[in-house]
Amino acid sequence: MRRRIVDEDEAARWFAKADRGPLAADDRKAFLEWLEAPGNAEAYQETAHAWSSLRAAKGADGLMAMRAAALRDASGISRRRAIFGLAGAATAAGGGGVAVMMASAAGATIRTSAGERLTAPLPDGSSVTLAPLSRVRVQYDAQRRRVRLVEGQAYFDMRSAPDRPFQVVVGDEHAQGSGGRFQVTKQGDTAQILIEDGALDVAAAGQSAPRRLTTFQMVSGQAGPKSVAAADLDALTAWRDGRLVFNDTPLPQVAAAFNRYSSDQLSLAPGARLNDIRISGSFRYDGAREFANALRVGFGVRVQQVDRTTWEIAE
Question: So what's the pLDDT on residue 182?
């Protein structure tokens, strides 16, 4: 199964490169060698067929408009923009991993790896920004715009289109609106939807009547009915500015957040005292090692570098 995922990622990269024009001699040689490996030719053909199917279903102004820029920010790497040709798969790569936009006959999938942040255009001129370790599924047709957050966190800046509603699914929550700016999060069994600007009608699976969420409101929790609450936008959306904000948060949760957003990793040795440490403040999410050293000074814990990117915190 792992081999199949690698084949599809490589197929998307080669398809994007080939779509931009004739391959250079070295690239063509490498491409032909790649095609010889088991499963690669089939993966490439499926990618090409999927994009052709999407073009036929929607036309040049449809899902094919999901071309162009994939913006990637990662620890220690300056901002870079990768632009790929029409009908190609948009990919931003470098540093610790790869952020990929891929197509299938049913739509497109956009995903990021650890330590990556990606902003990608959507077919109608809207955009989505993904936090690290996130994945969304995009499905557009003439009647609706639909996305599903499979995992992670995503911020949407949606253009208004009252005659073509925007639908988002996260966990058991289904939301619909005509446009606006909002953020959705899925971590394990917990789902969250918050509104920065605009309004969404939100309903959990099996709920008869939707609730209207407006600016600065949110719902959050596990499966089932959720109460509408005020949203702390500064804290909950700080990741878009490269920061993590905590308020009396247990150290294990703080370490988990850093490990999601940073290429450096924090490892907590077993110990009840570490679980009792509470953290408040705003921190750069690419500053995991600096945070570990600050813990050593502030709480008297031991910090040891385990390998090039991992720091162990112990009592």
Answer: 92
What is the distance between the alpha carbons of residues 275 and 251, in angstroms, rounded to a whole number?
Answer: 6
CATH of residue 295: 3.55.50.30
Structure-token match 């599903």, residue found: 148
Contact 219, 202 (CB under 8 A): yes
Whether pLDDT at 49 is above 80: no
**What local confidence, expressed as pLDDT, does residue 90 receive?**
37
User: Is the Cβ–Cβ distance between 188 and 203 less than 8 Å?
Assistant: no
- pTM score: 0.66
Q: Are residue 121 and residue 78 in the same domain, yes or no?
A: yes
Burial 243-280 (b: 16+ CB within 10 A, else e): bbbbeebebeebbebbbbbbbbbbebeeeeebeebebe
> If we measure between CA atoms, which residue out of 155, 146, 192, 188 comes closest to residue 170?
192
Q: CB 85: neighbour CB atoms within 10 A?
A: 15
Q: Residue 97: which of 64, 137, 130 has the closest Cα?
A: 130
CA-CA distance, 161 to 166, in Å (whole number)? 8
Q: Give the percent of the chain with pLDDT over 70.
A: 72
Give pLDDT, residue 72.
Answer: 33
Where does the chain have alpha helices with state H?
A: 2-19, 25-36, 40-58, 233-236, 251-261, 272-276, 288-299
Task: Measure the CA–CA gap between 315 and 45, rounded to whole angstroms.
Answer: 55
Distance in angstroms (rounded) separating the CA atoms of residues 52 and 254 = 44
Domain shared by 213 and 64, yes or no = yes
Residue 280 resides in a domain: yes
Count of domains for the chain:
2
